[in-house]
Amino acid sequence: MKTAIVVGAGIGGVTAAVALEQCGWQVTVLERAAELGEIGAGISVWPGAAGVLEGLGVAGLQKVAAAGDPAGMRRSDGRWVVEAPDLGLELPVMIHRAQLHELITDKLGPAVTIRTGITVTEVTQNAARVVVRGVAVESGGVSVSTQYEEFTAELVVAADGIRSVVRGALHQGYAGPRYSGYTAYRGIAEVETGDGGGETWGRGQRFGFAKLIDGRIYWYATANRPAGAPAGPGGLHGDVTAAFADWHDPIPALLAGTPPEAVLQNDIYDLATPLPPFVEGRVVLLGDAAHAMTPNLGRGACSAIEDAGALAKHLRATPDLSTALSRYDAERRPVTTKLVKRSRAVGRLGQLDSGILIAVRDGVLGLAGEAASLRGKRRRMEQSRV
Ligand SMILES: Cc1cc2nc3c(=O)[nH]c(=O)nc-3n(C[C@H](O)[C@H](O)[C@H](O)COP(=O)(O)OP(=O)(O)OC[C@H]3O[C@@H](n4cnc5c(N)ncnc54)[C@H](O)[C@@H]3O)c2cc1C
């Protein structure tokens, strides 16, 4: 049996493990966290990624995910910039991140071995194989051993996230992650609201929310801030509550209905400099390790899932590893490079903090929304005549 090592058991890594196993590979997954799983709040899953998961037999997504609403965009006082435009475009479903991870790992079979508590520190390769070195760590990331373990395989899939050690080994001069200028808060509110959700853009701040299938509300918020700035005396919950206190309903109520200890915060980085090939010999980069993007399009994890689907498709199509990996790179690099750029551009627009530029932005977006809505109506009328 052909052997593969997947570094990292995030959404990208576990999807890759499922996909590789289904192509007949024996897979070892090395994950530095002590336990398999995801923390986090909600996540949007777009049809492309949902299709890959369905193809892998990951069952039940539709049962545990809430259908997306065609959400609009508001100003901080609640006035609509673009009112819930039903454009007939594709929409994502919303699911809790931990549930998505669990649905995927449920599909892992006997040819996959998971090793948690192993931090990969080094990757070397020759024409025939790749050697991965790892060291045991405890949950805080502290090394508990100086005893390195070596793992050998024919293929290594690096799904070790935006600060990928494997990418560092392959591309030593690479610029690395770049700070976007803003931070993101996330949480799940345990309150009910009749509001269908959507995004609200203010001055250097944004807030968005959507319903999960159990009625709870997943929300996210952004604020311009220096990287690494510590939370205020009220903690993350205090910071985000203060920042959005005078925003329209139900935003303050959603924050009040969120357990303070459950608020998450991440400074937002991306891989602004596109990587040279995602592939080097027998090592392939996937997900955030290859193309971390800002979360403005809600596509990072979806792209990781689609990467895994593409990798498996090309490995299945040819027995020649090098050809399969080149085809993977040719398919996934252009698409994801565009997403990284688009996502960054949306973030820049959303985080504007000049009053004049914001007025222009909201005016242009309002007009664009109206035009798109008219086009959507016309399209639907034409379709109903056929
Ligand atoms: C605020 C926010 C909201 C988002 N919303 C969405 C959304 O709605 N939809 C969407 O599609 N995406 C979203 N994303 C993006 C998404 O979270 C990421 O793109 C996705 O998690 C990337 O998955 P991954 O498996 O590539 O990497 P990661 O999730 O980062 O997983 C990497 C794994 O590798 C492990 N690891 C790291 N280094 C090592 C090592 N040296 N040795 C062993 N293991 C290692 C880590 O512990 C981790 O488990 C959002 C991101 C943010 C910050």
Automatic annotation (TrEMBL):
Transmembrane segments: none annotated. The keyword Cytoplasm does not apply. Residues 4-178, 278-343 form the FAD-binding domain. Keywords: FAD, Flavoprotein, Oxidoreductase. Its cofactor is FAD. SUPFAM superfamilies: FAD/NAD(P)-binding domain. It holds the Pfam family FAD_binding_3. InterPro entries: FAD-bd, FAD/NAD-bd_sf. One of its GO terms (molecular function) is oxidoreductase activity. This is NAD(P)-binding protein.
